[in-house]
Amino acid sequence: MPDVTWWGHSTCTIDDGGVRVLTDPLFCSRLGHLRRRRGPLPDDRSRHADLAVVSHLHADHLHLRSLSLLPRHTPVVVPSGALRAVPGLRRLRDRELVEVGPGDTVHVGDVAVEAVPAEHGGHRWPWSRRWAPALGYVVSGKARTYFAGDTDWSALVREAVGRCDIALLPVGGWGPTLGPGHLDAVRAAGFLAEFDAHHAVPVHFGTMWPTGLGAVRQDRFSYPGTEFALQASRLRLPCSVRELQPGETARLELPDRRR
Question: Where are the alpha helices (DSSP H) in the chain?
Fold first, then answer.
């Protein structure tokens, strides 16, 4: 029975058989022009992890200050080339930093964490020439849990992930518009249909929002998780969608056919 805790944005803890994998740690209340507008800051429990994974270089996913708050014994997995592309990572050389590309696997206890491709930009900043591939991760223990990071619908991603039991899918963003390389709630539900998952948890919405735009496109901030669940129901997917509040944990039972 894996547990998934959503801390807001793309930060989740996947607890599979007692092995805790933390995704895209973001522990701040402010990031540039963005403010955390929903839920409290992740509490100390969020930092207890056996492994942390970073999906791509964008600052709301690879946040240096948040990574520095992790215990020094926690290895951090980053996309291949990240150490060259983000010089600030050198300040974290007192801990184990593991670079991976699509197809690479890291083991922690009885759990395997495989990097898979993502259909998303790999630059640190829009104007930056330095790049590393955007990734998702499949955490395989008692269940196969897919954390997508940021991605668009892609046959390449679908093939690399294969079947999964639990899908943590991005359904929104941090502003009133979504650029290329993202899923909205409707497209995320369509993508979910391809994974034969038993559970899904919507992420990457309803947390960070630009200063001064609190009243702009509230549907893009507050409702993507609910819209994702409704769309999955309309598609008659044999999958439960658990819309969590920041800091909430879901215990996700697997059906007999998956045991």
Answer: 64-68, 82-85, 155-161, 185-192, 218-222, 224-234
Residue 191 covered by a domain: yes
Domain for residue 181, yes or no? yes
Q: Is the dihedral of CA 225, 134, 75, 165 positive or negative?
A: positive
Hey, is 244 helix, strand or coil? coil
Q: How far is CA 231 from the centre of its chain?
A: 20
Query: Would you state the structure tokens that stand for residue 186, as one six-digit string?
Result: 């409707």
Whether 56 and 21 have beta carbons less than 8 Å apart is answered as no
Sign of dihedral through CA atoms 111, 85, 159, 60?
A: positive
Domain count, the chain: 1
pTM: 0.96
Render pLDDT for 7-38 as a digit per residue (tens, 0 to 9): 999 999 999 999 999 999 999 999 999 999 99
